[in-house]
Write a structure and sequence with these properties.
about 190 residues, Rossmann fold, 9 strands, about 30% helix, globular
Length: about 190
């Protein structure tokens, strides 16, 4: 699909076709959404679809998860006219931080951190990441926010898979993603 083409009918998720499959092997995510982010209407529609369930909700700040969540998170923050907080992989922030270990989708052990002065008790945070596959990364972000007294106002990602971790998140938090129900099984099976 070319980066200027916009379909005549734009139903939720039309832009998912812009993503490219993994061509590098098992150490990489199974889809790359960078072309979606390059497509002006695709990115706008993706962000609008992610934010639609939160219209009218109290959100104080949008937090994006390192690194690809920064793109959607910053776009969502701009659309909501809210501030943006980066939740980083450990070792990148030069200020006081709270840290949380986790296992990512590939099973690698990592540590996530957030600056301690950015979240005060009661602050309502919309957490945004590119993808929730096993739920480990998002769950670590949730734990950081809640440990610092923040309230998770919601979770948004292009896809939230029906994995054990994805289900855990969806059962406990208001969630939004872009995959139409009829396509969810394909995304869960990485097809």
């Amino acid at each position: 699909m070319d980066l200027c083409h916009v379909p005549a009918t734009r139903e939720k998720g039309w832009y998912l076709a812009l993503m490219a499959p993994n061509a590098k092997g098992p150490n990489y995510a199974w889809l790359d959404p960078s072309r979606l982010y390059c497509h002006p209407q695709g990115l706008q529609d993706c962000v609008a679809d992610l934010l639609q369930p939160f219209q009218g909700d109290a959100i104080d700040v949008v937090a994006g998860i390192d690194a690809m969540g920064f793109i959607l998170g910053a776009a969502a923050a701009a659309a909501l006219r809210k501030g943006f907080l980066a939740i980083r992989k450990a070792g990148h922030l030069c200020v006081q931080t709270a840290a949380q270990p986790y296992s990512d989708y590939s099973g690698r052990e990592k540590v996530m951190e957030v600056r301690t002065d950015a979240i005060s008790p009661g602050v309502r945070i919309l957490l945004v990441d590119q993808w929730v596959e096993t739920g480990g990364t998002m769950r670590a972000a949730i734990e950081l926010v809640e440990r610092l007294g923040g309230v998770v106002a919601g979770v948004a990602a292009i896809c939230i898979e029906n994995s054990e971790g994805g289900k855990w998140i969806q059962e406990r938090y208001k969630c939004s993603h872009c995959v139409p129900p009829r396509l969810q099984p394909c995304f869960d099976q990485h097809q």
